Structures
1.
Amino acid sequence: MSLLGPIPLADGETLGEQLARRGVSRRDFLEFCGSLSIVLGLGRGAADEMAKALQAIRRPPVIWIQLQECTGCVESVLRTSEPTIGDLLLDMVSLDYSHTIMAAAGHAAEKTLTDSMAANKGKYLLLVTGSVPLAEGGIYTMIGGRTAKAVLEEAAAGAAAVIAVGACAHWGSVQAARPNPTGAVGVSDIIKDKPVVNIAGCPPIADVITATVVHFLTFGRLPAVDADGRPLFAYGARIHDQCPRRANFDAGQYVEAFDDENARKGWCLYRVGCKGPATFSPCPIFQWNGGTSWPIGAGHPCIGCTERHFWDTMTPFYDRLPDVGGFGIEQRVDIIGAALAVGATAGVLAHAGATAVHRHRERQRQLPVVGSPPNEPGPPPPSAPPTKNG
Amino acid sequence: MATKLVVDPITRIEGHLRIEVQADQGKIQSAWASATQFRGIEIILQGRDPRDAWAFTQRICGVCTVVHAVASCRAVEDALGITIPPNANLIRNLIHGMQFVQDHVIHFYHLHALDWVDVTSALKADPAGTARIAAQVSPWPNNSATYFKAVQDRLAKFVASGQLGIFANGYWGHPAYKLPPEVNLLAVAHYLEALDWQRDVIRLHTIFGGKNPHPNFLVGGMASAINLDDTATINAERLSDIKSMIKRAQTFVEQVYFPDLVAIAGFYKDWASIGGGVPNFLAVGEFPEGGINDLDKLYFPRGIILDRDLSKVHEYDHKLVKEYVTSSWYDYPGGDDQGLHPWEGETKPHYTGPKPPFEYLQGEKKYTWMKAPRYQDRPMQVGPLARLLVAYGSGHAEARDLVGGVLKQLDVGPAALFSTLGRTAARGIETMMIARRMNSWFDQLVDRIKSGDTRTFDGSKWDPAKWPATAEGYGYLDAPRGALGHWVQINSGKISRYQCVVPSTWNCSPRDAKGQMGPYEASLVDNHPLARPDQPLEILRTIHSFDPCLACGVHVLDATGQTVAEVKIQ
């Protein structure tokens, strides 16, 4: 019996049940544990304990492939704090393939991948970072002599679900910025026959990535998403509506230039280019690196990195967004949504934006606001948000 | 009969790297390094606002997530004649310093260690023995028998599950693994501990830049304003957090990383005569402690070492850099055997390799997306060893002390530096230097604030109306993986040309017009063993000793077909 490679299990089956199904007697199994415990230097006395643990243990298989990308999303996951990356790798999942941290290389790495895909067909969770360059037959990213597209299609074929991690896997990101020299596209442009959830951001916050994985492992399905495939638990709120500097925006208190007197008072960054009014992201709520800070919190405008095509629609980064009103914003959000040029997403943006504004207004009634007009009643709360994956 | 061997993907690196070799009787005879990803970010930059360029180039790499952003800011500031305030320079040094320290520790434990450490052997260790070994080399408080036993139990449970995850199909039991089980357990414990440590200390980036990876930067300085009397700015609470992180970083490097490195190196002294490769070294210098052009105030000096001769440090002149595409999937209009300065001509991507899926690239005239930069037509190594040798040759006191100390502990001569082991040791030595130096940058920042200087940004040239019609600039930076340069040309407020020459382009470069191998390739054929072609552990050791960063290395010049004037460098 080989230790090198995951053990195939049917749904809901433990290793002990599987061995029984395959006709392995308990006696044989205990003998195996006995010899294994000696190989591992634990002594024969550990065999019973090991048998008990082994029969119950089953970590869900996860395969992580990296295509055309910068590895920033993997680095982000290494920063996860709840759970920590050590807990995730050792206790929660069986990460059978990860280019960046796996021990094996070359043929041994590819064998690990093919073995896991075969053994866990239909059951593994596939994480993808990086875009898929389609120009010139895919020669702009090749792994093991194969194109990124071929690698993705093969890995996705046997996956239970696919999580596209980061802006590159979401829609192509920086290499898909005008003029997109390599023809880069996102995962959901290639994989059409199974659920793909998009963890937006360049990179996404570590805890959003791990929370999505944990959601799948805990509830057996992917989280509900918006029209752009982004989980609502993370991307359901607009930065502008959750921003601690929102009161300054509403009061007309703006940073006019970096490091000016107003910047040193932590005022609103809208006039130096903040894209918070057009960006759906949990940055102000979850914050970054274990809640340490976030871009606006460190004095830099939001660059809108969770939105599709932000390298083109949000640039120049230091130009201010047009037509962001202080109050009555629910009437302007359609304009902003349209400016994002994301088609079907716009309606959801407007929808969620209006909701968040409504919620914000509820809170704001208690806030002292300098020189502001009285609040108007907002639109009625929307019905349940649209979802793609249920 | 030589064996043809392909290792693709090379894992535990950034990006997509393929190594092919021919080996015979346990030795590597020939080698080809191939980068198999191309993104074209420099093409994408054309016509954009130069103040945005840092964010685009930062996305070249999420591992060295700081280096391209800072090099880009420096290039644009050079072009527009912007002098950033001293506070902003100190903050950038702190951010880049923590990038070095965190990145090198991650490289050692999470990318490189498994080449030297047999994880499965750790299960056979006596935890009390590990504690005794650890106590001899370090006062680190976690190094107790109880602690190592807990790690071993956790590992045993993991292995017993039958699901080896990231450790599956490693070359465990390979005869090239030489550590006793107790030392393997020591390394595995610190592999896990370093995962928690790196997450904590990198928060320095989050305080100044709002996030990591990909913290925010700003042409003209830094966006994080300083005000001791506000909650939303850099204040005493934030400074105190930063100081604690610097202390924790330094303590971990001094008490865990560095002692582990020396202890492990002691079992692999044969690797001090393997994999030396290219004998020339280039450092552009880093950590400006005065103005950006006060080259005599760089903490790591600029210079060149030729033919392993440490008695003479040569001056670096960027105009002597030429890039070849003889073996690369690009065309030069005047023919592919000429070398061109990065600004001299057009380069068109032109893939001529086999149609994927394919088995071999060896035998192809062109075999990589990486170009071949040469200095005075010589290949050059860049990175920690190059920086350390240039510092050593320049009489840098801390470099000489630490290098001398390590050579003495290992009981080897200076020639040992020119090797696979030398590159790995140099990375640890410079991490010590930087971790200690960060204290002085922090103290200077606090002193300036105390004296009433809180400026972090120079906005005098922020408005494009104040820019000249055309401008060009150069931003240097010595990154964790080596010498980096960004060149920018600005025309009517927009980027007309952008070019990066990147550490991994030097190190991963292919053969040039003279047939000279690049550093990866040359190291793999320098007295290089390969015991089992089906388990190419030794190849990983040498390639990982360079800490490859492939996304950084592959880029493209100008695809517009225009003739480009040579950029003037101050």
Note: The CA atoms of residues 274 and 319 of chain B lie 33 Å apart.
2.
Amino acid sequence: MAGYLVRRLLAMLPTVLLISLVSFLIIQLPPGDFLTTVVAKLQQQGQTVGSDQLAALRAQYALDKSPLEQYFRWMTNIVLHGDFGQSFQYNKPVSTLLGERLPLTLGLGLATWLIGWTVALIAGIYSAARRYSKLDYVITALTFLGLAVPGFLIALTVVYLEFKLFGVTLSGLVSPEFEDASWNLGKLLDLLNHLWLPVLVLASGGVAGTIRVLRANLLDELHKPYVTAARARGLDERKLLMRYPTRVALNPFIATIGWTIPALFDGEVLVASVLGLETTGPLLLNALKSQDMYLAGGIILIACVLTVIGTLISDLLLAAVDARVRIGYGGSSK
Amino acid sequence: MSDPLSRRTFLRVSGLTLSASAVAGCSFFSTDAKKASGSGAAADAGAKESPVLSAMVKNGKLPPLEQRLPKNPMVIKPIQSPGKYGGVLQRGQIDRGATQNQYVEFAGLLEWTPTTPAEPGPGLAEKWEVLEDGKVYVFHLREGVKWSDGQPFTADDLMFAYEKEFLNKELNPVFPGWLAPGGKPGKFVKVDDHTLRMEFEVPHGLLLKYLCFIGLTGFGSSSTVLLPAHYLKQFHKDFISPAQLKTLMKKYPAPTWSDFFKGRRDIWKNADAPILGPWKLVAPLQGSGVTARLERNPYYWKVDEQGRQLPYIDSQQYTVMPAETLGLRAANGQLDLQVTDIQAEQLPLLIKNQESKGYKVNRWVAEPNTSINLNQSHPDPVLRALFQKVDFRAGLSHAINRKEMNDALFAGQGFIRHPCAQPEDEYFEKGMGQRFIEYDVNEANKRLDAAGLTQRGPDGMRLRPDGKKMQLVGRCFEVGVGIDAISVLEYAQRYWKAVGIDLVAKPMTPELWYEEIPHGDYDLVAYPPATILWDIDSLWYIPTNGLTYWAPKYGNWYGNPKDKFGLEPTGDIRKLQTLYDQLVTTADKDKRLDLGRQILKLHDQNVWIIGTVGTPFQPLIAAGDLRNVRPDAIASFRTHYENASSPEQMYFDSPEKHS
């Protein structure tokens, strides 16, 4: 197991480097650079920038160097000094910008994930165990809706209905009157009143998918001989369900933890944009749009490191949970 | 709770939210949204200053009003009536960057008069003289004006901007063009603490206008003239040692020194930066937060006719939200003053709800008129020659059914005109911009034939004069104002097909646009040009750079005759450039007006920019009890949008409802 772990960890390094290089270069691929965006902004305000001024600016930001040169400079700083560079757009270090947004991003992500999984687990197991029951049909119908309707559309619809029916506009995390009020029960309630919508919307897409997968997996397992055998031995139906087939059916859950971790970090872009949540998602979107490459590159790099780590965790967890996986590695469990 | 001091303290320690709430006396179990202080104290009509400030004076935290005001404060006549002190102005914005805040933190050496058209009027300079035919301008600063931190504002601040900002190659690689008429940089000379001379080698025709315009002289701009020298010296390379600078840049990291320096004078991000405008930033946007707060500048130098210090309104709160939410909030009566970021499609909802939700929608004059810009400097000599024929442009214009577009898009309310400035502009002459404008397919065909497009291909479409197939490509991107550029191209496509002209629309991203379009290798673009105060923003009517959409290569040539994307203009287009060169260096108003009219007349005769339908009006959303708002004015960036109605003299009729 230790050897396996070391091998995996070593293999992660080139993977991360390669992904970061490719993503850095892709960010630079579109014509123009951050200064193009600056010129565009100035132009919209009726100002003009001369070509000599532009050249001088380019030199100041080292944008006149080749993309590879820029990449190596950036990477060296990260490895040696832990410095992710500066965001041009915000005129702040990338790490500060991320730090400011992480609490909300992670909080929202975790809440969504916990609620989503709890709902999905219960609904998925029920839906498989009581196949073709009335409630199963309801769950199935809802999950198809959840899968088919994009999250941002649900968000927009709910926001509009709230406005139409109750005359309130949900956006951001607290109402304007509480924005710079001190923390009290009112603000906490107000926060919860704003939080349910993004959590509901964000969870809806994921929950639906997970329910379907869990239901299908569990249905496969329910008719396997070991279930029949256990039932023949007079095992209590509920105990049986939870102890054997559900455990096996959980594998896809565990396998997807690897994707959950980076998703917690880089947040949901569309829904967050529509609901005005300042998570890292919209930050990345803006950075990409304005070619703020160190900011975009930094977020993508961290997300890809987290993906690689997440995958490793998934694999380890799978091995821990499922004996078949352990044995499949051919004695590495020794 | 009613002690305004506790709020100031509170804002500083707002990081320690829980303990701060205890300090301010708020119970955690309270569900009240009241802030740590109540600014809704009943406003006494006789008071010369806001109760918030008089309480601070009483506590010794602020000098008395007489010491804060200049010797000769600027007296403002309120638009309707003298106001009451107090209240918070709620505002929204889509972008996290600085937008509307800059207009209310701005103060000008000169400021626009609240008239149509806006004229340069007194501001921080109470009077000025124009000497030597406009080569020398002498400004007399109001004595005793103070920055928002209480430090005096003098000619030294202007000298700092000139010597340490404009002449610093790192901050300004190129000396600001607006201070260099005829390409020759001007000079600032301090006469005494309150007198400053600006000297130029040739007469400066537009200096007074430029000084009013935030885009060039405001705090957000790189060529601002009003910098707090006393504050910025501690961050400027010329005044501190490299070691000190290093420590400071560790505290406020930035990619370069110039970014660091600009960050320190950023009035949207740095609450410590002193300003001269009516409101100042106290709580910037932070992290995932979505609000920023501005409060009254206790040293603001304007008073009403009774000598009461402005502004009337205590603070402003800016909330960042998506466009859809912003529209809904406005329709819910939750935004108190809003011009920017209101989307056209939300207008019906906004108008429908104004009675029931207690706000009003004022109709201001709008500028945008999304127009078709044929590239007069086309790299292909055949097309260039064709595009330069008046008959060709006349034919294309006559083929457009503007009435149909107007009915479909604006319920018939839009205006129909070619961009040739607009009636509210001082250079405009009645009747301009109406040539070839009526919908007439026969006339269109006649004109296109006359332009030499007599041969048609097998598909019935007209061929180029050299017999090749002709397909014009129209480029556009989502500009955000006026009719969607893509819709304009789609209408044109349909109308022109009827007269045998093949057009395809090709939208692109803004990033690509600003990279490619200035090279000038395209047939035509759809874009709304500026139509008011165009003289201080020359590129729309005179090819002065690559973003002059109807003649980019000629514009590049004007900037630099050796530009590889440049092309030398001839005839009327070259004449525009020489006329503008004269206009910039003509200080005499009548002569300047004459030159500007000659420029517009050339546009009127040539219809280089083919107009479609202009936005009927720009909605201004105002709270029901917000007073002293102009019912009509021009909404333009060049007159600072809502600031055309001087927010410092606006007030709430019931400020206690806006705390």
Note: The radius of gyration of chain B is 27 Å.
